Amino acid sequence: MCGNNMSAPLPTIVPAAQKVSAVVIFLHGLGDTGHGWAEAFAGIKSSHIKYICPHAPVMPVTLNMKTTMPSWFDIIGLSPDSQENENVIKEAAENIKVLIDQEVKNGILSNRIIFRGFSQGGGPINGVNKDISILQCHGDCDPLVPLMFGSLTVEKLKTLVNPVNVTFKTYEGMMHSSCKQEMMDVKQFIDKLLPPVD
Ligand SMILES: *[C@@H]1O[C@H](CO)[C@@H](O)[C@H](O)[C@H]1NC(C)=O
């Protein structure tokens, strides 16, 4: 988020109560900011983990009639065959990588960093590390990103990383949002992968 054309403010951070030994970086969805997610992580935080919720730069979004809003990259359409501007997605991924590199420079081991996001925030990623665990969550009443796209993504992810490390959870009646049960599942996932070190 530093340099070039990024107009986004600094990420909202939920600091660790003790010495930081692990980091979670979480990207919000289209038109949102990191604030709500920071609050959500504050609700499930563990004392040795720092949670970083960056804010997307503001840009015109083709899908929304070029309306200007926080967005990680331009979205042309939502169907699986929609044109995607790969360079723009790559650029977003590069900006996120800067954040990860900063934490590594701060002394956090790269295997102690979890990175992901909600909806569009789940998009920017450059080259998947094969030795990772993935938790993907989806509301089964999501009217914006149909559950089927989630299933397709999970099948794709299982070809990229060890399938036993890919977990797909669906939430009955949930729309394009998150819920308490989901946040508890997220907490369990994070705390299992990033236990305290002494
Ligand atoms: C993947 O799953 C296996 C079996 O549960 C586990 O031993 C391994 O640590 C997992 N890998 C990662 C990166 O979480």
For the record, give the distance between the C-alpha atoms at the N and C termini, rounded to a whole number: 32 Å
H/E order of the elements?
EEHEEEHEEHEH
Put simply, the count of helices is 4
Helix content: 25-40%
Strand count: 8
Bound compounds, please? Answer: 2-acetamido-2-deoxy-beta-D-glucopyranose
Q: Can you summarize the main beta sheet?
A: 4 strands, mixed
- How does the helix and strand content classify structurally? alpha/beta
Estimate the strand proportion.
15-25%
Low-confidence stretches: 1-5
Overall 3D geometry? globular
Task: Explain briefly what this protein structure is.
This protein is of the alpha/beta class.
Describe what this molecule looks like in 3D:
The structure is a single chain. With 198 residues, the chain is of the alpha/beta class. The protein has helices at 35-42, 86-105, 147-160, 180-193; strands at residues 12-14, 22-27, 49-53, 58-61, 67-70, 113-117, 134-139, 166-171. Strand 2, helix 1 and strand 3 (49-53) form a beta-alpha-beta unit. The two termini are 32 Å apart.
What's the helix and strand layout?
Elements: E1 12-14, E2 22-27, H1 35-42, E3 49-53, E4 58-61, E5 67-70, H2 86-105, E6 113-117, E7 134-139, H3 147-160, E8 166-171, H4 180-193
Bound molecules: 2-acetamido-2-deoxy-beta-D-glucopyranose.
2-acetamido-2-deoxy-beta-D-glucopyranose is lined by residues 131-133, 162, 164-165.
Key phrases:
single chain; 198 residues; alpha/beta; two-stranded antiparallel sheet; 4 helices; 8 strands; 28% helix; globular; binds 2-acetamido-2-deoxy-beta-D-glucopyranose
